[in-house]
Amino acid sequence: MHSIQNNKTKQPPITLYLLAGLIPFSAYAFYHLTAGIFQLGIATLINALLFGLVLLHNCFKPSKRWHNHVLVFSMSMMVIIGCNYVGIRGLAFMFPVIVALFFNYSLRRAMVSSVVFSVIGLIVATNSIDPLIVARISIPVALTIAFSFLYAKTIKQHKYALKQEAALDYLTGIFNRRSISKWVETKVSHIQNNTLALYFIDVDDFKRINDSYGHAVGDQLLTTISQRLQNAVHHSVPGFLNIDCKVARLAGDEFLVAIADIKRKNDVEIYGDKLLKSINKPVVIDGISIDVHTSIGVAATQDSDIEPAALLNHADVAMFEAKKKGKNRIGYFNKDLADKLQEKNAIAQRVKNSLEQKHFYLTFMPIFEEATSGIIGAEALIRNDHESFNGITPDKYIQVAEEYGLIIDIDLYVIEACFSHLQDIQPALLKQKFTLAINISSLELKNKQFPAQVEKLVKQYNIPTSLIELEITETSLVDYNEDSIALLNQLKSLGFSLSLDDFGTGYTAFNQLQHYPVDTLKIDRSFVWAIGESNNNKGFMIDVILSLAKLYKLSVVAEGVEEQHQLEYLQALGCSHYQGYLLSKPLSWQELKALINT
Ligand code: C2E
Ligand code: CA
Ligand code: CA
Question: Angle at which helices 407-423 and 394-403 pack, to 10 degrees?
């Protein structure tokens, strides 16, 4: 599509111009200085330096303010010295400085201004019949014009190249998110009866490919996919020829194909199938054959919102749905998804309002220790007292909050609320064995500011971090990377303990446990509930988790204990900590405080 591939935009040869400008100016100054015409010599020398400075500055950091100071200074000096030397004709000496102004202009303006100024200059100059003075004044004028022209032209080319670069994805050379969004916007405003369809393409398991074969292979794979998509829409696939479409990479392993003028509705699906087929073929990189699968989400103007941003969001939602249904397939945005999306939007809005209007509060689920049957901790669980949350469980709104990025605020709210509860009783708690567990979202593992934000609250409330355990779900570590492990280590070094929540559901390769700086595994309630059921492997999982915990010297909490026989089974296996409705439902802070005698 475009030829710029991996090409960094060439810088204009500023240094060359700088030198080319400075040499004649300096020579001119040198000539006058050695000829004993000091005023003119010094003035031109200063001028040459300023000329160079302005160019240099403009090259790295275009800013009119700094530029203007130099101009005012230089111009006044030139005019003073010039007028002193040749009277009113000295005005002509400001021309080389005025050129600096041109650099902020467009090419046409720079040309017009320099021609106007040169004409004035020449009129002033030819007032004199002395050919030497005419020459002296004309030379800088001529130089000025030449450099302003060259410079303005290069800047223009540079800006154009930058614009091109900004419009294209640096890796694949195809459109980026911004340019395809613009393209879709213009197309949407022009389609009439035809359909515009967006195909949101996400590579399945790209992270695994990247991790297994390295980033260089990952990059090559993305480049190949971009080529396949372009070939599909522009060349090889019959039926794709001459359609009005664009291919873009949105981010990472996400691509977008936009087709603007689909005349028959069922063509939307035909094109989707063609795209899927054109990408889903093995790629051979460095002799390694890699299977490529993608999930595609499709949103078309016929059955979706016509607003481009919403359309893109709908394609994204449809892609997400395709992933959920098992990947390697196409999902179409439809009424069902539209309803779900609307519901989520409404929940997100309520979460936002609740954060502002302080409708969230906490309950505390006690955690019991087998040895003493006493409470050795509690887990903070979020609740909402607003009627609009009736029937919406935390499971649901926490998930929506994660999707809409609101979870960061929720987590900070919960942490701060816990700290503020703990503030007055923490001296008493330090004397007994007690840990308050706080759930944090998996998104925090990507939030670099999180440790600092928590640390700030720790200082503000003066909370001993040994009292706090942070719970992250095991599934959040499925696509962990070194950064998230580093972040967990940072939290650990602040003194928090860490637990892996819903353990057993995330398919952690058990030998990876040693890489996670965690202290506790929380056995997911589904395994506890399966105790006693015949023919299931889930009870067996509890054995496995307990052995693992022993191996890695981690403590274990079994969640969701509802029945006596579950408790007995766990006790028999040597599980040391439990929580669940059998032992206690979530309590208010006052109730918890009474129970732990503080
Ligand atoms: P989770 O972290 O696994 O929390 C345990 C959930 O199991 C809680 O549901 C708790 O009330 C419930 N539970 C505990 N024991 C029993 C039992 O014996 N029987 C039954 N049926 N349920 C039991 P809840 O409060 O609805 O929370 C659901 C999920 O929402 C939590 O799962 C957690 O993932 C999330 N969540 C809750 N509070 C917060 C919070 O403050 N911050 C964040 N980021 N997530 C939270
Ligand atoms: Ca939890
Ligand atoms: Ca859990």
Answer: 120
